[in-house]
Amino acid sequence: MGEPSNHSLKVSHQPRKVRSFVRRTGRLTRGQKQSLDYLFPKFGLAMDAPLPDNWQPGQVVVEIGFGMGDALHQLASAYPQFNFIGIDVHRPGIGHLLNRIESSGIKNLRLIEGDAMEWLNQTQWHQSLHAVLLWFPDPWPKKRHHKRRIVQTEFLQHLSEVLKPGGYWHFASDWIPYADAVKERIGRQHQLQLIPPEQIQTEVLRRPTTKFEQRGMALGHQITDLYCLKPTC
Ligand SMILES: C[S@@+](CC[C@H](N)C(=O)[O-])C[C@H]1O[C@@H](n2cnc3c(N)ncnc32)[C@H](O)[C@@H]1O
Questions:
Q1: What is the pLDDT of residues 74-106, one digit of tens each?
Q2: Is 70 assigned a catalytic role?
Q3: Of 36, 146, 181, 220, whose Cβ has the fewest other Cβ atoms within 10 Å?
Q4: Closest Cα to atom 27, ligand 1: which residue?
């Protein structure tokens, strides 16, 4: 028998990345596809983009995992004094939100397509964010999938880098075991501090009802909102 070819011997030693999402080849409507083609160049940002011109550091809010983005659009419309970035991997949602940005004419919302962990790993926007919002992230309820939850030690470390001193992270979930795990994790690190929202000195944005929140409530789930402050010293 001949030697096996080099090709068959090739083994990748790259550790497999555990991701917090599964890329679904969800159906894009024609409108969503057109928005991605024509509007992303207008309202999209690259992963490694600097803060857009005229955006004041400290007045920027990032939502990670906006889904279809209606809550984010509502928020950006309600708070014109802030600039907003939405990050998601879900192309139908990005297309949908691009459409809404164009038709409403709001000027303070831009989108990034991609894995928020990759963005957090490479962004230079340190100490620039007023708030980071993570509303109803995939709860990955099975124990063997807990490692897929986006809130891990590395995620919290990145948050403390990108938030301005006095800025905050808002986590919301309809899955109590996830909220409990987040509380425990926060308790084990010292960069962020779990705090009642009324004790945050800076402006706290009111969370609109989201699509996944409605879904959770329809199932009888209880909603938990957690606020974590990045201390000023
Ligand atoms: C359960 S949905 C919640 C959507 C929305 N926040 C809501 O409450 O209706 C979670 C969203 O997070 C996105 N997502 C999950 N992991 C992500 C990651 N690492 N980077 C960017 N988006 C992510 C998914 O694509 C999905 O749109």
A1: 999 999 999 999 999 999 999 999 999 999 999
A2: no
A3: 220
A4: 67
